[in-house]
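Good morning,

Both structures are done.
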Amino acid sequence: MDATNPTAEEIAARLTAAIVAEGKAILSDGIALCAAAIDLVKGHGTVYPHGRRGPVFEAAQQSGASG
């Protein structure tokens, strides 16, 4: 990775990581009851790709955890 010239994939990974971190904080603070609620809001409130279920769900799938 070149920090001054990141690829599109690197940029997407960084943005997704930030979204997931915020989602985890929202869950741990008790603001949302479940990851699905966060993904629903992110899906409707942002331009997250339809059909991908949401960033928190994807992160859980990649880590092997249930969300």
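Second structure follows.
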Amino acid sequence: MLKSKISVRVAMVITVSIWMTVSLIAFQNCGADLKAIQGAENISSQEGEISNSYVEEFYEVNDFEEVNSDFEVENSIVSSAASKSCRKSDLKFRLPLNGAQGLRWTINNFVDLAGRKNQLRDYRGKTGRNAKTYDNHAGIDFDVPNFRAMQRNYAIVAAAPGVVERIKENQFDKNTNCNRKIWNAVLIRHNNGFTSTYGHLKKNSVPVKVGQRVKAGQKIGVVGSSGCSYHPHLHFEVRDCANRVVDPMQSNMFRTKPNYNSPLRLMDLALKAGPFKSYVALQKPPLNNTKSILLAQKLGIGLYVSGSKAQDLYRVRFINPDGRPAFKHEVRLSKDFDLSLWRFDAKFGRRGLWTVQIFLNNKKVRTAKVRVR
């Protein structure tokens, strides 16, 4: 039986109300230690309003649950590693996800190398709260922005050639907590005798079979949130011939090594008719963004950002149907986030085609149009 661990901490809702003319935005801090900057642009009563604007972040925690990655007996084979070299130098990995770091995926946790309970250390030598890991974490967690990635079948690929030894794919895949322990996963035995496990997969997404030989880069599943998982992600775990955890970052086993810190990027922008009323709702936006809402409705806005650092500035700006800036909302961070999820609500004061602009550190990174009917 293979075991792995995953955990996430969520700082819940911080509520802000903005009306007409605003000079200072104050946050009721729920543990995220966020600060808003001064000066939202003036708006007239004819132009519109933002009411019940929310900010919410996603980040890692110390409390975790053990994941039972038990594979069904009928979906597994056992092969001997006796004839293998069992040398790290004989195995090189490509990344198990396609796409650019920061835009398509970000890393939230690395392997815990401390070897002792409650003493954290990652491959960069960072310890305690500064380490990007949690107690006894045996793999690398590649996070995607939201459940849209799963709905759009974001593929997981084999990181190196090998033979599929174990598969489990019949478990629920939209978890946002640790209530379900058993995950969907694939285990591959590589040519040197090492194994790689790909966990938390989407239900019934595995296109390969036990005993099948796969190539590096071949699709073996889809990112999901099965088992003990708070957010859709891939847990990638490597073990040697003696079933001991191997850190591919420390051992330089990636042909293209991912960065320790992801760059600041907007991973996704979600727009929906009506507000995102909870963190879970923000994790599960509609598959496609809304392009129009009724005048009586609010526009729900979700931002999914990777690689945030203290003092980074987020801005949401609205351009009215006449092409003039109507109002904006800004937040300056006071701590780092590998992946953060933010939600805002906007209620418009008149009909027409509005423009929503997203800025990160004064750089415009996304523009969307919404027609208010």
